[in-house]
Amino acid sequence: MSEVDILAFGAHPDDVELTCAGLLIKMRRMGYRTAVVDLTRGELATRGTPEIREAEAREAAQIMGLTARENLGLPDGHISVEPEQKKKVAAVIRKYKPSLMILPYWEELHPDHENASKLIFESSFLAGLEKYCPEHKTVHRPQKLIHYLGRPGFDARPTFIVDISETFEERLRAIKCYKSQLYDEKSTARPTEIASKDLVDRLTGVARYYGAQIGVAYGEAYFCRGIIAIDDPVAHFIGRAAQPKGKGK
């Protein structure tokens, strides 16, 4: 059975670990089935090779406890909202049938990340149309899409923040699987933002910043398009089902 509750997309291997791994690990601990789809193999990356990144992604998947992880092999640096790429993304959505889908924020400095957001957003709509690619023999549209912000700095206020205090260290473990991409004092490769010596400090600072906004140690911020419907505000905000006290009491 390949169906999952939550499906997260990254433009490159390590994108998910750097942004939403805390939530994925937390949801897995709560019993939800989680999966990750990497759109490209990261073949244009300054450091490492696609083969090394693939092995690192498998190791990180084990730490995150994923039900499944796969790579669509789209061209790195050339993610675009075009028919063939839409078909591949729609097919994988129909394959896993997630209720909740996690994807990049719709405004990003990295073109692949921004284009990935548009591609996944449009593909998720098409995946629910019966007449779209009927050869897939199934249709599915996620109930909700939520977006992660790859690089803080945009004037975007989170729709909600998730407490990842209990999974933050595991998130760091997953990130550290990508040794080819991280700081190595012996490396002669050109420095990159991810390969900076202070990466963990910066990630920790961001998580603490979002955590402080909800009164916890570490948090991950998420963004939604449109309004979120809430059926039971007591259960949603207080964390327990309502206990009616009866009229006149």
Kindly describe this structure.
With 249 residues, the chain is an alpha/beta fold. The protein has a single domain (6-238), classed as LmbE-like (Rossmann fold). It has 8 helices and 7 strands; from the N terminus they run E-H-H-E-H-E-H-E-H-E-E-H-H-E-H. The strands form 2 sheets. It has a 5-stranded parallel sheet with strand order 3-2-1-4-5, with helices on both faces. It has a two-stranded antiparallel sheet with strand order 6-7. Helix 3 (50-64) runs antiparallel to helix 6. The termini are far apart. The relative contact order is 0.17.
- Arrangement of strands in the largest sheet: 3-2-1-4-5
The CATH C-level name is Alpha Beta
Secondary-structure arrangement, i.e. CATH architecture: 3-Layer(aba) Sandwich
Topology pattern, helix = H, strand = E: EHHEHEHEHEEHHEH
CATH superfamily: LmbE-like
List the helices and strands and how they pair.
Blueprint lengths: L5 E5 L4 H5 L1 H9 L4 E7 L9 H15 L3 E7 L8 H14 L3 E5 L6 H16 L17 E5 L11 E4 L4 H8 L23 H15 L5 E4 L10 H6 L11
Helix pairs in contact: 3-6, 4-5
Task: Supply the key terms.
single chain, 249 residues, alpha/beta, Rossmann fold, two-stranded antiparallel sheet, 7 strands, 15% strand, globular
Gist?
This protein is of the alpha/beta class. The chain has 8 helices and 7 strands.
